[in-house]
C-alpha cells in the first residue's frame, strides 16, 4: 500500500467471518491493481453515516452484507434497475455525487448456473424458501425468462407476497405453495434452488424437504449454502441421480462482478479458479 492505493470495503454486521477481503485483495494483487479491501462492522443506525463518510474519504467502492442490503438503498444517488426491483443492494460503485447500487448476488448465481449448464430461459424452476435470498433469485429467474417458477415456502403467506411482487413485474409465472404441496408440481425434472437455512452449520443434517418423492423432481440442485461444502440437500439430490452444487461459486462470482464494476476490468477464468481454491482452503482446511 502507498498514498495512491485506492480503498474498497465491506460493511455489515457481523463481518469478521467474511471471505470478501480474500477475494478482492487476491484479485488486486494478481492483476497489478493498486487497491486494498477491508471490512467494517456497522450498526443499523449508522449505515447512512457510513456511506456518507466513505464517499467523503474517497472510498472507491463498497460491498454490503446482512443486515444492511435494504437500508443502504436510502443513501444512494442511483440504483440499477434490477436491483431496484429486487429491493436489495450489495455493491456500491462510486459515481458523481454519491454511490450507485447494484445487486451482484444475482450476477454471481447467474454465472454459477451458466457454468454448471443449468438452463433457466424457457424452463420451469423450483425455488425453496421465500426469504431475502429467494427474493433476488426469484427475480433473477423471472428476468432470465423462466417459463414457470414454483415458489415453495414453509408459510404460504410469505410465498404469496413474493410471488405477487415478481408477477407484477414478469407476468403470472410464479406459483406460490407450501413445501408440503410439492406434489402439485407436474411430474418432470426441474432445476431446484435451495435458499432456506436448512442444512446450515451447525444444523448440517437438516433438510428443507424430507420426502424422497420430491427429489425425484430434481434435474440439478443448487444450494446457496457453502458451509458445509456438501449439504444435506446436495446429498439428497445426488442420491436421486441429480448433480448438486453449493453456493461458494455464487459468493466468488458476486465478488468478481463487484471487482469488475469498480475497476473496469474482466477477471479471467483461470484467476477465478485460483481464488476459488484459496476460498476452499480458508474454509475447509
Search tags:
single chain, 285 residues, alpha/beta, six-stranded mixed β-sheet, six-stranded parallel β-sheet, 10 helices, 12 strands, globular
Describe the protein's topology.
Elements: E1 6-12, H1 20-31, E2 35-41, H2 47-56, E3 61-64, E4 78-79, H3 81-86, E5 91-95, E6 98-102, H4 104-115, E7 124-128, H5 132-143, E8 148-153, H6 156-170, E9 174-178, E10 190-194, H7 212-215, E11 218-223, H8 232-239, E12 244-245, H9 248-263, H10 269-284
Helix pairs in contact: 1-9, 1-10, 4-9, 5-6, 9-10
Q: How does this structure look, described?
A:
Strands 2-1-3-5-6-4 form a six-stranded mixed sheet, sandwiched between helices. By secondary structure, it is an alpha/beta fold. The protein is built from ten helices and twelve strands. Helix content is 39%, strand content 21%. The radius of gyration is 19 Å and the shape is globular.
Number of helices, where a helix is a run of at least 4 consecutive DSSP H or I residues: 10
Strand content: 15-25%
The rounded distance between the terminal residues' Cα atoms is 29 Å
Return the structural class.
alpha/beta
Overall 3D shape: globular
The counted number of beta strands is 12
Spatial order of the strands in the main sheet?
Answer: 2-1-3-5-6-4
Biggest sheet overview: 6 strands, mixed
Q: What value does the average pLDDT take?
A: 96
Indicate the percent of residues in helices.
25-40%
Q: Write down the Rg.
A: 19 Å
The sequence of SSEs as H and E is EHEHEEHEEHEHEHEEHEHEHH
Q: Which stretches are poorly predicted, pLDDT < 50 over at least 5 residues? A: none
Amino acid at each position: 500500500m502507498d498514498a495512491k492505493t485506492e480503498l474498497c470495503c465491506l460493511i455489515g454486521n457481523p463481518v469478521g467471518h467474511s471471505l470478501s477481503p480474500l477475494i478482492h485483495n487476491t484479485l488486486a494483487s494478481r492483476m497489478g491493481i493498486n487497491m486494498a479491501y477491508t471490512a467494517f462492522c456497522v450498526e443499523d443506525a449508522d449505515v447512512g453515516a457510513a456511506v456518507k463518510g466513505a464517499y467523503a474519504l474517497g472510498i472507491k467502492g463498497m460491498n454490503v452484507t446482512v443486515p444492511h442490503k435494504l437500508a443502504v438503498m436510502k443513501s444512494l444517488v442511483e440504483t440499477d434497475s434490477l436491483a431496484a426491483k429486487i429491493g436489495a443492494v450489495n455493491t456500491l460503485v462510486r459515481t458523481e455525487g454519491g454511490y450507485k447500487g447494484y445487486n451482484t448476488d444475482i450476477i454471481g448465481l447467474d454465472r454459477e448456473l451458466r457454468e454448471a449448464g443449468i438452463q433457466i430461459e424457457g424452463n420451469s424452476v423450483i425455488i425453496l424458501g421465500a426469504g431475502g435470498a429467494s427474493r433476488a433469485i426469484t427475480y433473477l429467474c423471472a428476468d432470465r425468462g423462466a417459463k414457470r417458477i414454483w415458489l415453495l415456502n414453509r408459510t404460504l403467506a410469505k410465498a404469496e407476497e413474493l410471488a405477487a411482487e415478481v408477477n407484477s413485474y414478469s407476468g403470472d409465472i410464479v406459483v406460490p405453495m407450501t413445501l408440503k404441496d410439492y406434489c402439485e408440481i407436474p411430474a418432470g425434472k426441474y432445476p431446484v434452488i435451495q435458499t432456506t437455512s436448512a442444512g446450515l452449520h451447525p444444523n448440517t443434517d437438516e433438510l428443507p424437504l424430507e420426502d424422497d418423492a420430491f427429489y425425484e423432481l430434481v434435474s440439478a440442485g443448487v444450494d446457496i449454502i457453502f458451509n458445509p461444502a456438501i449439504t444435506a440437500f446436495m446429498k439428497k439430490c445426488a442420491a436421486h441421480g441429480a448433480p448438486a452444487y453449493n453456493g461458494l461459486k455464487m459468493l466468488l462470482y458476486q465478488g468478481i462482478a463487484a471487482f469488475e464494476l469498480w475497476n473496469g476490468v474482466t477477471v479471467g477464468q483461470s484467476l477465478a479458479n485460483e481464488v476459488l481454491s484459496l476460498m476452499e482452503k480458508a474454509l475447509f482446511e
